[in-house]
Write a structure and sequence with these properties.
By secondary structure, this protein is mainly alpha-helical. 46% of the residues lie in helices and 11% in strands. Strands 1-2 form a two-stranded antiparallel ribbon. Strand 1 and strand 2 form a beta hairpin. Helix 1 crosses helix 3 and helix 2 packs across helix 3. The longest helix is centred in the middle third of the chain and has 13 residues. The chain starts with 6 loop residues before the first helix and ends in a 7-residue tail after the last strand.
Length: 71
């Protein structure tokens, strides 16, 4: 199940499952979308309790706390 994720939410989520060390800028580059778009979608994923950021800035990583499906 995709847990009701949209196409882009699902792509962002699965990229972060594969590579939790990605920054938002790197994620935007990988997916070919604007940084602001990535920021907005990450905010949505955090609100839905699927994702949280551990650590500070570049030394941090994403922690997957929910099941987004497709990963």
């Amino acid at each position: 199940s995709s847990a009701g994720l949209t196409g882009l939410e699902s792509r962002i989520f699965s990229e972060l499952v594969k590579n939790p060390g990605l920054s938002r800028t790197e994620l935007a580059n990988v997916l070919g979308v604007k940084l602001d778009t990535v920021k907005e979608y990450i905010k949505k994923l955090k609100r839905r309790k699927l994702l949280k950021r551990k650590g500070k800035t570049s030394a941090g990583h994403w922690e997957i706390i929910g099941k987004g499906g497709g990963a």
